[in-house]
């Protein structure tokens, strides 16, 4: 729950204990904006603030499912300049993400990793209950492949954000969010699932 702003103070606390961490970030948006309406802290800026404070090991940051409108002709330039791997949604369409997650596990290695999942990474056909829906997103099956693909990583924390149940009278977004959180708990180090 909550908007993506909550990840910023969480990563401050995580970095106090672990130093800069890797990040698996599932989202429709990079959340690396600088300001909105003159404010430097809002749900579209947390990862820029994290970079500025040295909370992320930028060579170990992967953003998956990124898409949607932008005011910038090169909306991923900042991320690439930091060393992030950006996987746009169109690179995920109509295929399994198991091979991608094999690459991600290799890139992230055995150092600490944080998993941050914005529900708008999923297509609004599955998760309309969010404040900033973007068409042509990931499927629930792909979301499971991403989360399950993180098993074996040194996960030191995770979140699921931007669920807004009042925008989905069916309750499906909340159900999907709860299931994804359960899956995240199952991949934490030391959790036995078999």
Describe this entry's structure for a reader.
- The chain has 194 residues and is an alpha/beta fold.
- It has a single domain (4-187), classed as Arginase, Chain A.
- Helix content is 31%, strand content 19%.
- It contains six helices and five strands, in the order αβαβαβαβαβα.
- It has helices spanning 7-18, 46-52, 77-82, 98-108, 140-149, 172-186; strands at 21-26, 56-66, 85-88, 112-118, 154-161.
- A five-stranded parallel β-sheet has the order 3-2-1-4-5, sandwiched between helices.
- It is globular, with a radius of gyration of 15 Å.
- The model has no long low-confidence stretch (mean pLDDT 96).
Q: Assign the structural class, choosing from mainly alpha, mainly beta, alpha/beta, alpha+beta, or little secondary structure.
A: alpha/beta
* SSE arrangement, N to C: HEHEHEHEHEH
**In which range does the helix fraction lie?**
25-40%
Sum up the overall morphology in one term: globular
Can you identify the CATH class?
Alpha Beta
Neighbour order of strands in the largest sheet: 3-2-1-4-5
The number of strands is: 5
Average of pLDDT? 96
- The fraction of residues assigned to DSSP E strands is 15-25%
Q: CATH homologous superfamily name?
A: Ureohydrolase domain
| Number of helices, where a helix is a run of at least 4 consecutive DSSP H or I residues | 6
Q: Segments where pLDDT lies below 50 for 5+ residues?
A: none
Largest sheet: 5 strands, parallel
Supply the CATH architecture.
3-Layer(aba) Sandwich
């Amino acid at each position: 729950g909550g908007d993506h702003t909550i990840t910023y103070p969480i990563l401050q606390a995580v970095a106090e204990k672990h130093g800069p961490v890797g990040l698996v970030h599932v989202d429709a948006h990079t959340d690396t904006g600088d300001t909105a309406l003159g404010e430097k802290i809002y749900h579209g800026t947390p990862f820029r603030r994290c970079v500025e404070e040295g909370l992320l090991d930028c060579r170990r940051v992967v953003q998956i499912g990124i898409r949607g409108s932008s005011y910038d002709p090169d909306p991923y330039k900042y991320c690439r300049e930091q060393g992030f791997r950006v996987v746009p949604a169109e690179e995920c369409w109509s295929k399994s993400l198991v091979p991608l997650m094999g690459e991600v596990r290799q890139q992230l290695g055995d150092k600490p990793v944080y998993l941050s999942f914005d529900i708008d990474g999923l297509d609004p056909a599955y998760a309309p209950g969010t404040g900033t829906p973007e068409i042509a997103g990931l499927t629930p099956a792909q979301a499971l492949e991403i989360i399950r693909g993180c098993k074996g990583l040194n996960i030191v924390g995770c979140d699921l954000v931007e669920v807004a149940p009042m925008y989905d009278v069916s309750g499906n977004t909340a159900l999907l969010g709860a299931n994804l959180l359960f899956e995240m708990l199952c991949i934490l180090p030391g959790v036995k699932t078999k």
